[in-house]
Task: structure prediction
Amino acid sequence: MKYRFFFYVLVCLLTSWSEGVRAQSVTVDASIDSLEILIGDQAKVKLQVSLDADKRAILPVYQDTLVTGIEILDVAKLDTQLLNGGKRMILTREYTITSFDSALYFLPPMEVTVDSKVYKSQPLALKVFSIPVDTLHPDQFFGQKTVTNAPLVWSDWYMATACGLFLIPAVLLLIYLIHCIRSNKPIIRKIKVAPKLPPHEVAMKEMERIKSEKIALKGDQKAYYTELTDVLRTYIKERFGFNATEMTSAEIMDHLLECKEKEALKELKELFITADLVKFAKHNPLMNENDANLLCAIDFIDETKPEPDPNAKPEPTEITIVEKRSLLSKVLLGVGITVLTLLMVGAVVYLVRELYNLFA
Result:
């Protein structure tokens, strides 16, 4: 019987201890950072809940007031801290409160529900004082001060200044674009052209080039006579009006005989015969013969060049082309006017708003 009694006592003690431990597994604590404040000042109420990590807690939800006379200004985000390898956790939330009535306020316990069971914190108190007024010296009281204008900072007006400077050229450009699209004037382009040289001047330049390059001195007789006769054929074609570039030497001479005397073309005929022998019969003329043929070609060009006309008008060095304005250019002008107008309206609205804020 004696041992059975001790056994029952031990079981009761273990049961009460386990219930006490279970009851202590959830703790709710509330604290306030200041017990006394002036009217309009703020205080922070901290609610801290300690519980097992596998439990679900529901913290109290307040509207605008904690109690009558105590207003809630802000509710901080819930902070969660894990302990003991994630087995325990501490939930913390802060409430920012204030009051505009002087009194001693009782803050009731804050209720937290954990797994359908309600746990309460300890109650708090807050004393709100009014601002002390020295009624014995009323001359120290001053009325409401007037609104003081903020100083002008030029860095705040960089954007407004840029908009103002933008409007000046933008207005001029807009006027120009509107004038262009309304006048519908054609586009006038001027193209510079080099005056065309007469055939004898072109041929003389080519003869000077052949002479300066001295192709014959390099031993290439065929290339020398090919270039020499090609220049003559081109000159004859431009000067006398028949296609000498596609004719044989004999055909060229026959056409020239219709325009010139036979004696005047004797040396030119010998030049063409020598050129044919060099190109087709591998004839190798002497050096002085090459020079003589070059002089013969130059003399022929000089003798057959047309006489200059003193009444002839100089060829233009610039051509004026008049084109009608295309549909694409009209569309681009319209788009440019629209975009520029929108930018100007935006700049004006911005300037008006800034000036209104400055002087309002």
The chain has three domains: 25-129, 154-187+325-359, 202-304.
